[in-house]
Amino acid sequence: MSENQKQGIDEEVKKMMEEKREIRKDTKRATNMEEKKRLIEVRKNIENLIKTKIEENEEMKIDKITKNLSEKRNNYNIMWKMKKKSQKKQSSAFALKDKEGNELRSPDNIKKRTSEHYVDLYEPNPVKEGYERYEEELERLITYCWNAPDETKEELMDEEITEVINNLEKDKATGPDGISNEMIQRGGESMRNSIIRMMGKNILNRRNPRRMADSLH
């Protein structure tokens, strides 16, 4: 096999690899299921062609070695050189790019770059600077919102509402809103404050909850 033949096969495989990558992109963008299936089938055919071309390339190399060995059976020096040449690592038909955008074709370099990628991918994300301060500010804001003065709250009898919640009967059917007495009790102070605010708004708007009697029983 001449160098021109070898170069031709390598270039042909390279072009098919690029075509396969483009078809993969088109497949991801396709919204029509029939078109997506067609592109997948085309990609499979290209993969088979790539495999065939690579196998043909290897067969040609073997044929050349066999022919030369047959012609120079008694020349051990030439046989040894050909053996070493046949055992050299072949450039891969596949390629990756390193962090700087340089193309990698050597199997060792591709393996190294792949390892680097997954090390970077699964490296624990460092806590961003200022995150703890953000958490503290958020906690202060929540506390302030709950403790902010409410004009209507003074008109309500907090102790009575708390007592009603604590004395709700358990194992009762839920009201029309699907909230059980146990859920209200487990809500703790946040639930109590929410009920107080709701009651305050109802009083302010002079409107009673339509299903109050069904929910608190």
From TrEMBL:
Q: Where is this region: Disordered?
A: 1-30, 83-109
> Which portions of the chain have biased composition (kind: Basic and acidic residues)?
8-30, 96-109
What name goes with this protein? Uncharacterized protein
Q: Which organism is it from?
A: Meganyctiphanes norvegica (Northern krill)
